[in-house]
């Protein structure tokens, strides 16, 4: 055979082999897409952990985890976090999902006054709230409201921040410029989805409306707490002059008898996101505390911290809206049951929540949840208004598993917060009116953002 014919034969063979190989790859790809692959290819040759592809994927994953342990991705979220609520908590949860460590910048009261208006809570109270959120790793205090280039560089160098995060709602400075413009220019800004249905402005509005007794609830005598709020509102009206507000010609919110309804839409996914997903280990000392936990505040945080110190697993029972209303009057609770559940679940001291727990603790509840100790805080919304109902804790007392906890924040309660707002009603109504305008603009122009 000549050299030319031999070369030609080899070329034909190689071409046929290449065609056969390409056909085999095509058939293999098609069979995998149509699930024929799993039926006819032996398991030892299928793609799975342990094969070369699986080994490479595992190696890359291990390298990534090792690198992030040495140099974790640090993200930064700033804000006032006044009247901390589940919307704030959900923003922090999403921010934490962007990186490994979440650093929170707490804007001081002096900056809030210059840029937004009066805060409800002082610096120390707001610090207690943000430090107790289970997704927060570090808190920086005294940060400026304006993320200037100089402050951004301080975040990137001194605090080793990789990304600055904010919701999809605009954050404008008094001069109308974007507070996050510099971070966006550097490509170190990440957007998260804003949680709809709640805001500090909304909660303040609900509190302002509760200064009047609900006219749709038939009652010969107003509830003691409602009378207290109404007297405070009346005094505030006497002290303040009626000055027309050019920015908001609407009637004062506190004059309305209508309550502000929550726009919160509860989902099972949201509860799952906030839940620890933990089960009390065998032999754990389970501590139980119940209540309304309405408008989650520093007093709640302190009593939950003290309760968790009494055992290994903290279970919190949340009473229904109807039970809270019967006990405290038609104007409360400010937050509904699902909103209160998320606020409590966001606290790092809480392991699990019983949604809609009965007000009276029975032996069945103790045995069902294997409760070792029942505790109760010394501060109540009804303190000084009405004697507490001791029958709620008769069973745990008779079993010798009840213990009262002295409050670390005796002056802090939902009633106290409402009085703060009522006493400065004009200032808060002006702030709410201004916020309502910007909220309307956001709602008119917002687009869909995928939640993390």
Shape descriptor reads globular
CATH superfamily of the largest domain: HUPs
Portion in beta strands: 5-15%
Note poorly predicted spans: 211-261
Number of strands: 10
CA-atom Rg in angstroms? 29 Å
Q: Level of helix content?
A: 40-55%
The CATH class of the largest domain: Alpha Beta
Average pLDDT, all residues? 77
Kindly describe this structure.
By secondary structure, the chain is of the alpha/beta class. It has three domains: 3-66; 72-195, Rossmann fold; 268-415, Rossmann fold. Helices cover 45% and strands 11% of the residues. It has 18 helices and ten strands. The strands form two sheets. A five-stranded parallel sheet has the order 3-2-1-4-5. The longest helix is centred in the first third of the chain and has 31 residues, at 3-33. The chain is globular. The relative contact order is 0.12. The model is unreliable at 211-261 (pLDDT under 50).
